[in-house]
C-alpha cells in the first residue's frame, strides 16, 4: 500500500491524551489490507487491527548477515513465496544493512505481498523522526505497516516515550501523515518493564496495536512474559509477537528440546506471530515445515516440554537476553535513544 492510498481511505479518529502537557495528534483509523496467502501457511488475526498475517514471521536481524546481498534477497523472496507475509526489521540491525536488503527484496511487486514491520530506538520526537526517515529510505517504501518502539528494557523507557516531545508524539504524527499504520513496542529484559509500558499507555489514553516479547520453552520458568504480560496484552486486544524462540541458538545449547518442538510450542500460544531468525535456506525450510505440520500442542504435551526445560531454565542461564547486556543494542549505543 502506498501512502497516498492509505490517506484516501483513512478517516480521522480522536485519541485522547490524559497527561498534562501532552499534545498527541489525532490518530487515523487504519483500514486492513488483503494480501496473498499460501495453503501451506497458518494465518492469524493481528490483535484487533483487522489485519491477517502469517503465524511465522521472518526475523530481520539474520537477513542482514549473509556475505552476498543477493543471498539475503533470495532468502526473503523465497520466504514470501512460501507464504510468510510478516516481515520483521529494525533501524539498527546490522547498521541498517538488514533494512537495505529487505528494501531491495521487496521490489518487483513483493512489497504488496507483505506486512512490513520495523522498529525505532529513538525515545525523543526528533530522534524518532530522523530514524523513521532513514528506515523508509532503506526499505524503499513510503508507508510502513507497523513501527514499534524498540528495546523497552529500562523502567524509565515508558516515561521517555510518553513525555512531551517524546517518541510517541512523533509516531502519532507519522501515523496521521500516513507514513505508518500501526504502533507497538518491544522488549526482552523483564516483564515488569512491559507492564509499566502498558500502565503508562493507559494513563495517557493510548492503546498499543502490538507488543513483541520473549515466548519460548524456557520463559515460563524465569521472569515469564508468557505468564505476566500475555494476559494483559490479550485483555487489551493487543497483538502478541513472539520472539527469542531459540535466543539466537543459545537456548538450543541446553539440549533439552528440538527446534520443531520450540516452533510448535510458540505457535501453540495465543500469539499472532512467532518471529524467528532465518539466516539460510535450511532454517527457512524448517520454519515453513513447522507451519505446514503444526497441530496445537495439548496441555499435557506442553507441560511435559516445560518439565524437560525447567532445570536448564533456572535463573535465566540460557535466556541471556534477560540476564545480560548481550542482546541490548541500545545499552551499547545510548546515543541512538536521543
UniProtKB/TrEMBL annotation:
Protein name per its UniProtKB record: L-fuco-beta-pyranose dehydrogenase
Alphabetized CDD domains for the sequence: AKR_unchar
Residue span(s) of domain NADP-dependent oxidoreductase: 56-256
Keyword tags: Signal
PANTHER family: D-THREO-ALDOSE 1-DEHYDROGENASE, NADP-DEPENDENT OXIDOREDUCTASE DOMAIN-CONTAINING PROTEIN
PROSITE patterns assigned to the protein according to its UniProt record, in alphabetical order: TAT (PS51318)
Superkingdom of the source species: Bacteria
Residues in the signal sequence: 1-28
Matching Pfam families: Aldo_ket_red
